[in-house]
Design brief:
The complex is a heterodimer of chains A (322) and B (283).
Chain A: H1 2-10, H2 21-32, H3 35-63, H4 80-86, H5 93-125, H6 132-140, H7 147-157, H8 164-171, H9 186-212, H10 216-224, H11 229-240, H12 242-257, H13 261-267, H14 278-288, H15 292-321
Helix pairs in contact in A: 1-2, 3-15, 5-9, 5-12, 5-14, 6-9, 7-13, 9-12, 9-13, 12-15, 14-15
Chain B: H1 12-40, H2 44-48, H3 62-69, H4 75-106, H5 112-121, H6 131-140, H7 148-151, H8 159-170, H9 174-181, H10 186-197, H11 199-215, H12 220-223, H13 232-243, H14 247-267, H15 269-282
Helix pairs in contact in B: 1-14, 3-14, 4-8, 4-11, 8-11, 9-10, 11-15, 13-14
Chain lengths: 322, 283
């Protein structure tokens, strides 16, 4: 407290002599007091500590315990929950790796499409023409709807008998009885297709901002040098977009790897549990089967897998820069 | 964002080609949404025809009547719950994130670097991997099946603080310095000078937070149980479970959940799109 008063006095705005010491202290504390930054931070830090940091610590703690919500004893089991994920004779091995496989399939197919399709949309929108803002809004619109709406809607559109997709295919003379949501590989086509439809506008908007940061002079110079449209794209647009490409790649990989709602609502895991994803399996283990310990271990292994993939992304893009 | 760098194609034929592509793509994005509305206006029998009718025949309010009157699926209640949750969540994010971001952007204090690093660090942790421990935490707070459980925990997200800090750093310091000379304290500077200057950024964050909360599905399906406590996304899941292939009813529910965010999108398009592109460039 004395410190604060000192600072206040040093700033040359000492209160009139009539003011009490207490009031003086409080007032100068407001100005430049040591407590001020912490008071500003406090409300957020409370939330951040309880729901941002504590769950990380708690997750690590849970992962080394056998933790059932319904049992009073929650014994320490060391790394058993982790080992089970890697030993083929454990109860969870098969389901866990199947969910990893499902997530990997979805990610590997969806990420390239979610990189390329939005880039095409952005290039299309990156010129001036009447109605540009309107089209940008239309392409972005599906993204503002939640996965629950998207899931219900596409479950219906992809219905083999009553759905619009097969109806339209029939109209143009293609097979009209594809089991889009109940059999593979169609289920994968559906999940990826819906995700591309749903989120392309989002990535396109990010690309668009990146494109506008590329200096028009570079295009002009390339044109003067007689570069074709493809050469301008290859040697001006792509290098200019590199940081944006890295950002889009990283966030898209993370978003795809965390896929849940689409398979939960559209394919409902079908056929069997073949399209059940990692996030789905983890929450099912942890919250439906009351096995928080195993679920926590899976979460951590999964987060580490994603960290490795993200690092690989950074390496890949840095490599190209050299 | 508003000044395209490339010049428009000059040849009229190229222009026609451009619009043909633009319109075809627009149809791909819009037809599913239009089909949702069309189906919500069919009768049960009308929606069961194979192949499906292009237009409702007869036109019917059956779907909407079901969701508004069937007490097993209190859709209006879910709608109000969602509205309340998303509004409160968005306010909570605005208040807590703006104060924290201001301290991190403009004040010098011990631990600032560490605090900011911790907050940004959590941006790299997939939120889905924290769901199980977070469930335990809200359970021990006795928040399961309450409004708080869908309002509060999400506000711990680092995004708002990060986003506003970047914005505050871009503001000129002169106005704040002038306010100091006028004898304003930190709170007054924040409240009277910085916040009014930050209206665009605050609006963007408010809209994005509202959308995120309105659409959240994974968390509420595990922490809300009673039919009268649900928000719309888990409610829609319940609706699908009980109506299965009664598509007019399910689509009516989907329309009801879409209308507010589509209206919000039309009104706040600039904020949403700027928010998304800014988070991309500075993230």
């Amino acid at each position: 407290m004395a410190d604060m008063i000192e600072v206040g006095a040093a700033r040359g705005d000492a209160p009139p002599p009539a003011a009490s010491a207490a009031r003086r202290g409080a007032k100068s504390a407001n100005r430049v007091g040591r407590a001020t930054p912490y008071l500003f931070l406090a409300p957020y830090l409370v939330l951040f500590t309880v729901f941002g940091l504590l769950p990380i610590v708690l997750g690590i703690y849970l992962s080394v315990h056998q933790w059932d919500f319904q049992l009073p004893n929650r014994p320490f089991v060391g790394l058993d929950n982790y080992k089970e994920l890697f030993s083929s004779d454990s109860a969870v091995f098969g389901d866990w790796w199947q969910s990893v496989r499902a997530t990997a399939i979805f990610t590997v197919i969806s990420v390239p499409l979610l990189m390329v399709v939005p880039l095409g949309l952005a290039l299309l929108l990156n010129r001036s023409f009447p109605g540009r803002t309107f089209f940008r809004a239309v392409y972005f619109a599906p993204y503002v709807l939640g996965v629950a709406v998207i899931g219900l809607l596409w479950r219906f559109l992809l219905d083999a008998n009553l759905g619009l997709v097969n109806r339209l295919l029939g109209v143009v003379g293609l097979p009209a009885d594809t089991p889009w949501v109940t059999d593979v590989p169609w289920a994968w086509v559906s999940l990826v297709g819906v995700t591309v439809w749903w989120t392309s506008g989002f990535n396109a908007v990010i690309y668009l901002a990146g494109l506008q940061d590329i200096s028009p002079e570079l295009y002009e110079a390339a044109r003067v040098d007689g570069a074709t449209a493809w050469e301008r794209f290859r040697h001006v647009t792509l290098p200019g977009l590199r940081p944006v490409l890295l950002f889009v790649m990283t966030t898209t990989v993370l978003a795809s790897a965390n896929v849940f709602g689409q398979s939960f609502l559209i394919t409902q895991g079908a056929p069997g549990t073949e399209t059940r994803t990692v996030v789905w399996y983890i929450v099912e283990q942890g919250l439906r089967n009351n096995d928080a310990g195993r679920a926590a271990a899976m979460s951590i292994v999964f987060a580490l897998m994603l960290a490795v993939v993200s690092l690989a992304n950074f390496r890949l893009f840095r490599y190209r820069e050299d | 964002m508003t000044t395209p760098t490339r010049t428009a194609p000059t040849h009229p034929l190229r222009r026609v080609g451009l619009y043909a592509i633009l319109v075809a793509l627009a149809l791909v994005f819009l037809i599913p949404l239009v089909w949702m509305v069309i189906t919500s206006l069919k009768t049960y029998d009308g929606a069961q025809r194979i192949p499906p009718d292009w237009l409702p025949d007869p036109l019917s309010g059956y779907g909407y009547q079901q969701i508004l009157t069937n007490s097993a699926n209190p859709v209006l209640r879910w709608f109000l719950n969602s509205m309340l949750a998303a509004t409160l969540h968005s306010l909570l994010v605005l208040v807590t994130a703006s104060m924290a971001a201001y301290a991190l952007a403009r004040m010098r204090f011990r631990g600032r670097g560490v605090t900011f690093a911790l907050i940004v660090g959590t941006l790299f942790i997939p939120p889905t991997s924290l769901i199980v421990p977070n469930f335990l935490i809200v359970d021990s707070l006795n928040w399961i099946d309450t409004l708080a459980v869908v309002v509060v925990p999400g506000a711990a997200s680092a995004f708002g603080v990060f986003f506003l800090r970047q914005f505050f750093l871009s503001l000129p310091k002169e106005l704040e310095e002038a306010a100091v000379l006028d004898g304003a304290n930190q709170w007054q500077i924040f409240y009277r000078v910085v916040l009014p200057l930050s209206k665009p950024a605050l609006a963007t964050l408010a809209v994005l937070s509202f959308l995120t909360n309105w659409n959240d599905f994974l968390w509420p399906i595990f922490v809300l149980f009673s039919p009268e406590k649900l928000t719309l996304p888990p409610g829609l899941g319940l609706l699908q479970g009980s109506y299965v292939t009664d598509y007019p009813v399910i689509m009516a529910g989907a329309v009801l959940a879409s209308v507010p965010v589509l209206i919000l999108f039309v009104l706040a398009q600039r904020h949403i799109i700027q928010g998304v592109s800014r988070s991309g460039l500075k993230g």
